[in-house]
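Q: I have two molecules that I believe assemble together. Could you output structure tokens for the complex as a whole instead of separate predictions?
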Amino acid sequence: MRRTPWSQRFGLSGRGLVVLLPYLWLMLFFVVPFVIVLKISFADIDLAIPPYTSLFQWDEKNVLSIKLNLNNYVFLFTNELYFKALINSLKVALVSTLLCLLIGYPMAYGIARAKPATRNLLLLLVILPFWTSLLLRVYAWIGLLKANGVINNILMALGLIHEPLAMLYTPFAMYVGIVYSYLPFLILPLYANLEKMDWQLLEAAEDLGCRPWQAFYKITLPLSRNGILAGSMLVFIPAVGEFVIPALLGGPNALMIGRILWDEFFSNRAWPVASAVAILLLLLLVPFMMWYQGIQARESAGAR
Amino acid sequence: MNQRRSVFIISCVAFGFAFLYIPILSMIVFSFNASKLVTVWDAANSPTLKWYRSLLSNEEILDAAWISLKVAVINASGSVILGTLAGFGLSRFTNFRGRFVLNAMATAPLVMPEVITGLSLLLLFVALEQLIGWPAGRGITTMTLSHMTFSMAYVTVVVQSRLATFDTALEEAAMDLGAKPLKVFFVITLPIIFPAILSGWLLAFTLSWDDLVISSFTSGPGSSTLPMVVFSKVRLGVSPEINVLATLTISVVTLIIVAVSFWMARSNRIERAT
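A: Yes, here they are, computed for all two components at once.
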């Protein structure tokens, strides 16, 4: 049978038209905006609408002068607050990712090894919270963790504690919120990976005298490496810039870089400083994003 | 040995699901609580539907829900078109100039922190308005355009993974029999990937309906969405009406998800049987 790939059938013009629309869309709404953020990060704050100065100036003698204001970056690097917030965001994201792995790996493993009928139900139960508003699910934790919240009420009724524990507006609450919200993002790629695993390998290892933990460590864990990495990146990268969860659960002292960006923009109306924060955050995250894309490419190449 | 392992795994799975569902269940239970204190159960007067009535007569929330609904429907329909085109292009045309760039651009919004996307889109709209006078001011239009940009990434992934698993032989056979590529797409490809497109639409709708951060950056005066209203209420403290809103959201989502997955399981069976 003569097999002609799609790409040849369409001819150049047809092919071009199919991808042109999404291509142009993403160029205009995803790539160009970053160029503008970069530009404004070199502007100065101005009492105008929009609140920043222009970089380019034509004077009477037809001279174009470009004024790059590096002060936003100098300000970020000399002000301890921003550095601390950045380090803290990385720490919070890393710890949350590890906690997600700790809870999510056994879950993904259990789902992948369940009977097909149970498996579909369990998967549905993982996906369901993901479809329900993040904001509302974070809000639920306020009710659980407050001083007169559900958890404190239960503990006091049982006589385990006599005074309510301070849980809300602490780092603990923030970790709970992040792990809770991002857990499905870790379980789903990990499950997709584990589902393809050949379990006979484990049986073979055990028949040959391997202990279950040893077999897990030597076979399952290395084979699920791509799933672990992909899931971890899906938690880690957005968690570094998370705003909603620290704002609602973390209390006023929760220094997260996403929150600083938000405050600079909305409270201080310091658009150039917010832009500089965004550029630094982006530079920090781009290597992780490229890593994630590499893992994805390897996963789909392996699937074929 | 195996027994012990499975007990360990089952308890881990059970713990995980308890962690995922206890907060949701507590919101549902307390939505029927009479007390304004939200977490203190008023046994004498509960359960009650009083907060349901008060939510359904709350103009601010209803107006915001209407705006959110408009944005979400337009966004979902637009992102399905863009995402299907991108997903189709990426999976069927294996080598074209800019494939790498398109792939990178289509997946990056999945992991991009929302504050960065929101800020960059707002600055784009401000710059465009200065340059060409469009979009004039910010509101529903700018929010919808922004939502489409990140939603289409999700649709692209869903469509692309569906296309990767189905055999191109059907399409090729149709083309060998003389069908034009466009006809093949509408008669063969589209019906087969329809479940993926439907899930893409629902996903895009939900992402937009739930979005707080990107909407806050790109909305204008008088166009507060439901999450924006909820966020400002929650910041002031818990409110029983939010429990009701959560319960209603969860019920609708559960109904739709269960219905769609039943329908998909059935159509999968039919596909396999034929």
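A: One point stands out. The mean pLDDT of chain B is 86.
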